[in-house]
Design brief:
Glutaredoxin2_C; single chain; mainly alpha; Thioredoxin-like_sf; Glutathione_S-Trfase_N; globular
Amino acid sequence: STSEGRVLVPRKGVTSITMTRSLALVLCVSSLAIAHGFVAPAGLRSVVSAPSVNKLPVASASASRLASPLSPRMTLTPSSVAHPEQVIVGSPLSIVYVYDHCPFCVRVRAIFGAKNIKHEVRFMANDDIDTPTKLVGKKIAPIMEIPTKNEVMMESLDIVKRIDEDPTMGPSVLLPGTDRTDLKAWQKKHQDLFRSLQRPRYVASGLLPEFALKAGRDAFVKNHPVPPFEKPDWKSDNYDMATRYAKYNECMGKTDELLPQANTAVEELEGMIFSAKHASEPGFGYDDIELFARLRSLTIIKNLNLGAKTKGYLEYMSAKFDVPLYDQMAV
């Protein structure tokens, strides 16, 4: 929030790399918190000073808290969610190439988690063009590779279907989707509100692997407008990077105004989610793959008051899919 002085600033001179989760976390903690001057007043959350060409941000003493891998608020407990027996299909393992924040990527991670298929997750830097282009001919995510079958796929729901229906990877676990027009309408109704809150936080957190380096953050900010801007205008030469970052900062500065609206919006979800174990009455299925992928990003918004049913649903699905929420790094 603005009371903590949380703003974004573009920096120069760092190139992007493709990384594993562990490497990304090391880079985030050491490079972002110390060398880049991120401030973490509340555990795993980071900020920088207002934009200035000649002035570098100064890290506060509280940034040293990032040296600890766990926030003081974090406790580790074994999952109570039952999983099928782990499936290992050949060697090398299947690989998913993803961005952590991307809901389409979450869909793919979710089906692998739901079927408990051992696989490798590779987080691409947001400006990495070479990796996806070599795999499928263009910059896109998610991508799935099954090396033992010389198979590469894109398109998230195609991948979900491919994995769910493959008997060599265990029995199918997903019921068909029920075309939840109410959930789709809710998402469309509040799209601009949550883009204003979520997009600046993706890059401001400093911990998502695709944004560990400056080039990755720049690529995202350049290609993802905040309301009321439309993408063609936002990406045009009408705006330089300093202006785009300034607009992101303006959204962060509106947190006190937008958060009550977001709290009202998430209250509406309570009547739409059937239970913690499945969003729709028939049972666990494609509706949950799609809904969890969209709702997960709500947890990056600090002090968002999720209702009991929504919170329970997110926590259950997070454990079932083996896809962590953002609670411990909320901004």
